[in-house]
Amino acid sequence: MTLRELLKSLHAVDEKHLDVHALVSPASGGYAGVTHVSVLYVGHAVIHLAESKPVGPPPDFWKSPEGGVAAVNPDDMKKLWQLFRDVQSRSGGIGGGVAIDMGLYERACSPGADVQAVWFRAAILETLKQLRPELLAPWLEDGEFDDAVFQVAATFPMEKMGTGVVREGLPVDVEEFVKQIGART
């Protein structure tokens, strides 16, 4: 049975939605012997397809966990930020419950962009917004950041985070980050 046939048989989506791009998570899990792929169609429930998987550590996100995160184009960060907001609004604002296929990130960024670095920098920005909203509030209006935030976030020194590495705080000097944003506005 194909995925298309399965989705149709489950009545999860109607015929017109079967051929649209879906947001598909990569295989995840691995800690409890289960992996799953989630398929999310906007306006419909998340469908989880699960299978057994040997337990093992997750792979490292970075090819080399040493060093800093590459600087990126601020416009790519803005595009990913908008993608985050779009997915969040379509999913009812649930936090952490939606996975996005890396191909969607790649299509949002300019050709040749270091998509992992763009995603990581945007994710750190979102994390900072969630954990310390008062720090970025002066540059946030209706969920949109001032361009200065993206300009600083695109180039500000950030450390890579390796799998299994325990650290205190974010991999960025938060106070200096905020100071540099303030200097640009």
Number of domains: 2
Biggest beta sheet attributes: 4 strands, antiparallel
Q: Terminal Cα separation, in Å? A: 56 Å
- From the alpha-carbon coordinates, what is the Rg to the nearest angstrom? 18 Å
Order of helices and strands: HEEEEHHHHEEHH
Fraction of helical residues: 25-40%
In DSSP terms (H or I, runs of 4 or more residues), the helix count works out at 7
Enumerate the spans where pLDDT stays under 50 for 5 or more consecutive residues. 17-52
Work out the strand percent.
Answer: 5-15%
pLDDT average, as an integer? 74
Tally of DSSP β-strands: 6
- CA-based shape: globular
Structural class: alpha+beta
Descriptors for this entry?
7 helices; alpha+beta; two-stranded antiparallel sheet; 185 residues
Structure notes:
The protein has 185 residues and is an alpha+beta fold. It has helices spanning 3-9, 74-90, 102-108, 115-131, 133-136, 147-155, 174-184; strands spanning 23-24, 28-29, 34-40, 46-52, 140-141, 144-145. The protein folds into two domains: 3-52, no CATH class; 74-184, no CATH class. The protein has seven helices and six strands. Strands 1, 2, 3 and 4 form a four-stranded antiparallel beta sheet that branches. A two-stranded antiparallel sheet has the order 5-6. β3 (34-40) and β4 (46-52) form a beta hairpin. α2 (74-90) crosses α4, α2 (74-90) packs across α6 and α6 (147-155) packs across α7 (174-184). The longest helix is centred in the middle third of the chain and has 17 residues, at 74-90. The radius of gyration is 18 Å and the shape is globular. 17% of the residues are buried.
